[in-house]
Known about the structure:
The structure is a single chain. The protein has 453 residues and is of the alpha+beta class. The chain contains 16 helices and 21 strands. It has helices spanning 7-14, 24-30, 39-45, 59-72, 122-130, 148-154, 161-164, 193-196, 232-244, 287-295, 305-311, 322-331, 347-358, 388-400, 422-432, 446-450, and strands at residues 20-21, 52-54, 76-79, 96-99, 106-110, 113-117, 134-136, 173-179, 187-190, 208-218, 223-229, 250-256, 276-282, 299-301, 336-337, 340-341, 362-363, 365-371, 374-379, 382-383, 404-405. The longest helix has 14 residues, at 59-72. The chain is globular, with a radius of gyration of 22 Å. Flavin-adenine dinucleotide (FAD) binds next to strand 3, helix 6, strand 10 and helix 12. Residues 33-34, 77-85, 88-89, 100, 118, 140-142, 146-147, 149-151, 153-158, 203-204, 208-209, 321-323, 326, 439 line the site of flavin-adenine dinucleotide (FAD).
Amino acid sequence: MPNSDNWLDEMIEAFEAEVVNVRQAYVKRMSQDYYWYSPILKRQLESHFGDCVAAPRTEQELMNVLSFAAKRKIPVVPRGGGTGNYGQIVPLYGGIVLDTSKLNQAIEIKEGEGTFQAGMKLGMIEKTLHESDQELRFFPSTFMKSTLAGFIAGGTGGIGSIEYGTLWDEGNVLELTIVTVEETPRKLKVKKKEELAKYIHSYGLSGVLTEAKITLAKKTNWNDMLIRFADLDQALLFSEKVAINSNIKKRLISVCEAPLSTSFSPIERYTTKEDATVLLQIDPSHQESVTKLASTYKANVEDTFPHYIHINKLRVSDFSWNHVTLWWLKQHTKDTYLQGRFHPDHYLEQVKQLKDRFGDKVLIHFEWIKVKGAVVPSSQPVIRYHSPARLQEIIDAFHEFGIKVSNPHTYLLEEGGKDDWIDQICVAKGENDPYSLLNPGKTKRRANKKQIR
Ligand SMILES: Cc1cc2nc3c(=O)[nH]c(=O)nc-3n(C[C@H](O)[C@H](O)[C@H](O)COP(=O)(O)OP(=O)(O)OC[C@H]3O[C@@H](n4cnc5c(N)ncnc54)[C@H](O)[C@@H]3O)c2cc1C
């Protein structure tokens, strides 16, 4: 708990009603994300909430909120769209939920790069970019709700990562503006790769982002494709061929084992219980060659799918990445998922090992992406959940088979598999958040916990 009894009254006094909201139902809602995908996190986090929501309308107002928090030693949890999966925005020690969604302006758009305020939704950025015949290099499947800063501080990659890699790949995030949590907050600009890494996927622990400059892509009129395969291996092999062929321009390659795609209710007519599916976004000029390639894998290319998607105003991204899990959980409320990086050379063998041991208790879901220039299968398999012990058994088997797990059943940053730059994040935290008020409890580092009352 914050270390001052009447801080909330003082905060209400200090800020306009439009900025500070203490309505309990609202504060509770704004203290939650999609952690409930995990039965473990659900149990741990469902009773944790902030004390108020502060939604600054300007950067100066945001600095005033942070100054107030520093003076009174009140925890602050920055929040974007609240679409994270690991309870990243759940305040473990109460305090202020810092809603950044009113900082939502495009600051500058040039050919090839753009600067936007932290709380601008990625969907709005994408729409704005179309006016200059540009688009985001990549975005999460939640892009209509999630914000630029929420993605940078909480995400990894998404639709477009097969071409451009992830947030950490050089040249994607160019510059960040960060505000510190001190009595007199400072504004920092960081540009260098090793400096940027202190804020990417940092859960907001090391500073509050107020602006980001990112690299943009030239707009392509992507074609959506859905291809069905009677055999999962054939679907995987085909998807790999498309992924590694640099002559095929693509934005998405998403593979689902049967019967995962039957839960995609808006496009269920294109799925069957027996077939694996591959969803793609392809440059129109390469659609014919992809169709030809699919025919060599005994696949069924759904010709009417692009038209169906178009006339029904659907988005193929809604059936990829962690939306696959979301659709499945709608119908199978007890199930859950994992995140794993399979080996690009042995992934078929790793899939076989999992299927041999767990059968349909583990349902394979891959997206092909680039990491530091190498094409790799990233996966979010659905797990038919039984118990924590059984889940751990499955995680152990992933390790045994050499599949790197980013555990989505923990709210601790380093235990989610992202442990290689936690030291740098903590260095920045020490400099920018001397009272350790930012998102307390989300790292197991003693330095972080010690100062929280
Ligand atoms: C259905 C579904 C699909 C998803 N698909 C993808 C995907 O394709 N790729 C992917 O990477 N992720 C995915 N995610 C996870 C999540 O949607 C993304 O990471 C998203 O970009 C988070 O953005 P947000 O604005 O909702 O962030 P929030 O959930 O609000 O916040 C995420 C983290 O960022 C911090 N933060 C927010 N704003 C700031 C700020 N201004 N300064 C400092 N820290 C800040 C928060 O404290 C929190 O730790 C998915 C989640 C769901 C539920």
